[in-house]
Amino acid sequence: MLPKGFVLSRDQERGDVIYVAAYLIAILHSGRVYFQLITVLLCYMGQPDADATALELLERATREFVPTVQASSLGPEDMVITDIIARHCLPIEVFMIDTGRLHEETLELAETVRRRYPDLHFTSTFPRHEALETYVGTNGANAFYRSLELRRECCNIRKVEPLRRALSGKAAWITGQRREQSSTRHHIEELEWDEGHGLQKVNPLAPWDEDRVWSYLRRYKVPVNPLHDQGYPSIGCAPCTTKVKPGEDPRAGRWRNIEKEECGIHFVDGKMVRTGAKT
What we know:
alpha/beta, six-stranded mixed beta sheet, two-stranded antiparallel sheet, 8 helices
């Protein structure tokens, strides 16, 4: 019997070989030692069923909330979700918001996603050029350095409004938010009603910790932003993202030295609003 909490993985490399080896041992030998060895081998080819729970939630979303889309920042959590969607051929569109100020490494990762998952419906959404031209023409290209108000306005033009447009007509959207990420996310639920956008919000990785995220990425060799290995655990627009020092909050590098922890896409009137699941 497999230890509780493990399921056989049909995707993991060498899984079939190990299963056959364990089966042959069971046939050729008997006794406690050999049965223990079988268990160890099966555990090796198994995987925690945490990502199975995430898959179940995503499958539920495709049945109950049509259409459902994933908003991806191409961060580690979003790459996990995108990989699950692609590997299981779920009918979920994935989009990213190209703010016009992303790192080159982020844009290169977007192209990698397109090449790795050719059957995935992956698109980019952009800010409205009229609003951007007005903001830059009036305040300057880097006005967000001058005040919190100008930074919020920049985020609204480059992220919040494009997201609102991308979610128009959708029944649910998927995010990579985790409770562990920051104090503003401690109470998020796997499924909750997004009052601000008027649709369901699905957070399949809400209970995951960072180790679980990276374990999944390594197991399936999912591509990630190379900046993560250079001290950037959380990556947004290039001008507003700095390296994080050892011991700092993972999101400490976002909007450093300014009283701002979120870009605004998860907020309504400056507050993270949720009223629980709505079915």
